Structure formats: structure tokens, C-alpha cells
Amino acid sequence: MADKGGKPFLHFKTNATAKAKGYPAWQISFRAYTDNPDEWMDEYHIRSMVEAVFSSLKRCFGPDIKSIKGWLKRRELAIKVLAYNIKRVLYIERAKDLGIPLWVSCQ
Known about the structure:
- The protein contains 3 helices and no strands.
- The protein is mainly α.
- The protein folds into 2 domains: 1-63, no CATH class; 64-107.
- Helix 1 crosses helix 2.
- The protein is flat, with a radius of gyration of 19 Å.
């Protein structure tokens, strides 16, 4: 990914070090994390939310795209995303109707 110009967002363990073992992207990413961990975690959280949506899509509709042709694959994926979004909107509307709060404080 780094070779293509992307910026890696890795979740570092507490005992992680800057020793890259041959991967310069690791050093760049770790340095950015250690320089400003709060900003790094804010950006990482965006990535984790996107990954959560991908995971939910795969759990709901399966990990496979059944179509063979490229344009049909895109259409199938678009339909899955649309169905997921409709499902989420319906859940939110139903929760509002029942008076169930969407967010609960964990503290």
C-alpha cells in the first residue's frame, strides 16, 4: 500500500517499537503515531468504522459476490450496500418509534 502512495493505519500494541524489520511503512506509521497519538487514533477510528460496516455487510449478505461480469459485480455490490443502508434506516426509525435511545453512555 505504501508503495502505491497510501498511508497505512495500523493499530499498535503497547509494546510496539519503531524497529521495522524491513518495512519502511511501519516506521513512518509508528513515528506518526508516537508524535501525535490522539490525532492518530481519531483517524484510525474512522478506518475502524468503515471496517465495521464492511464486516456487517459480509455478515448480513455473505462475503461472496456471485456475479461473473464486472458490471454485474458492481451492481450486486451496490444493491447490497443499498439494502444495508435501508436496513439501518429502518432500525433507527423503529428505535425512535419505541423510544429506545440510539446512544447509551458507557460511563
